[in-house]
Amino acid sequence: MATAVCAVALMLTPGAAVAIPAAATPVTDGCPHRLVPPPAVDTSEVVAPGSTTPSALPVPAQTVGGEKLAACGVITDPAAGPVPDRLTSAAWLVADMDTGAVIAAKDPHGRYRPASTIKTLLALTVLDNGLPLDRAVVPTAEDWGQEGDACGMGPGGRYTLRDMLTGLLVVSGNDCAHVLARELGGVPATLAKMNATAAQLHALDTRATTPSGLDAAGMSTSPYDLALIFRAAMGNPTFREIIAKPTYHFPGYPPRRDVPGDPDHPGYDMQTSDQLLLNGYPGMLGGKTGYTDDALKTFVGAARQGNRTVLIVQMYGLSTSDDNYWTQAQSLLEYGFHAPSAIRVGDLVSGRPTSQSTTESRPTDPASGPATVPGSPRAASTSDHGSTMSKRILIGLVAALIVVILLAVATRFLGRRRS
């Protein structure tokens, strides 16, 4: 079974780096992942007997963010200069987070597994649903028994939803993800809410099938969608505050009564898995890492320097023996900061669509993901609606004026007949 790990060791520790030659970087020009992610390398996505593997999400008729982003190779403007070399990610994206301009990308709508970067969508869903972060929560054995990275909760510990949300984003705790899912109504209800949020954001390549990012059949997102989700989440002050924390004191718990000789488990200062933030990269606002055997390394994050905020996404990548994934992340940020402000190969659509443009946006199947909705930016859908309303108002005014004129003529005619 693939495990979701925070990827600190895999991304930073030379001894743990997976050695692959730079030439092994996947070529995506032929759009091999237009519909589904790369093949799984283990059994994590094998469905239970009697269950059906989810079908691929439909590809929107209009490319979200602009038609240039329909390409699957490297998309760039020569005026921005050459893109960084030695990038091992199959797909990546660089954007101006403030303006929404996509500066450059590779396979931006290619579908890949998010691993723990999907926790940004879970966090946004928690915040959107207004859960009180000071609420006390009682963890269960199912929570602390979750596979993969954990914050380290246990019986008898005193925790709040803020602890859970912070542990989710800082150290990628799958135990915290399970607690938050329960607070949102259970895993199926949480997946339905996460996928509805994705649909509202026009993240149409995204389907969450686990709250934590552990691989499961049907899971997918894209660099473009992760950029949309992270940008929306950064608009929430609480998310922005938590994702910027390099450390956080997580509560401990007393010795377990069911384990003879179990010692005390004191609280500890957890450290973020975002090594750019932890190591003081200038202007780093925060980011979210991810790794599974099937997803490989993933990352979404942003930094601000001067008057520009650059957002980057990396998917399906690895460190090589002489090329660290954090070095690659830094090179993408630098590329974004040095690109002329006029560079724009596409757009991150902003805002959430109106009800008129999302009549199919809420799926009935909790894990079905977003239904097919228009792939154009919100501005286009709302302006079309506004244009239609304006025409109706104008027609109504003209009709009213004609009625007034006819009444005036009739009154004058009748007056003459009576005189």
What can you tell me about this protein's structure?
The chain is built from 11 helices and 11 strands. The protein is α+β, with helices and mostly antiparallel strands and 419 residues long. The chain has 2 domains: 8-18 and 28-43 and 58-374, Beta-lactamase, CATH 3.40.710.10; 377-419. Strands 1, 2, 3, 8, 9, 10 and 11 form a 7-stranded antiparallel beta sheet that branches. A two-stranded antiparallel sheet has the order 4-5. A hairpin with a 2-residue loop joins β9 and β10. α2 (119-128) crosses α6. It is globular and about 65 Å long. The protein starts with 7 loop residues before the first helix and ends with a helix. Residues 1-23, 353-364, 371-391 and 413-419 have low confidence and may be disordered.
What are the SSEs and their pairings?
Blueprint: H1 8-12, E1 74-75, E2 91-96, E3 101-106, H2 119-128, E4 136-137, H3 141-144, E5 159-160, H4 161-170, H5 174-183, H6 187-200, H7 223-234, H8 237-243, E6 247-250, E7 268-271, H9 275-278, E8 284-292, E9 296-305, E10 308-317, H10 325-338, E11 346-347, H11 378-418
Antiparallel strand pairs: 1-3, 2-3, 2-10, 3-11, 4-5, 6-7, 8-9, 9-10
Helix pairs in contact: 2-6, 2-7, 4-5
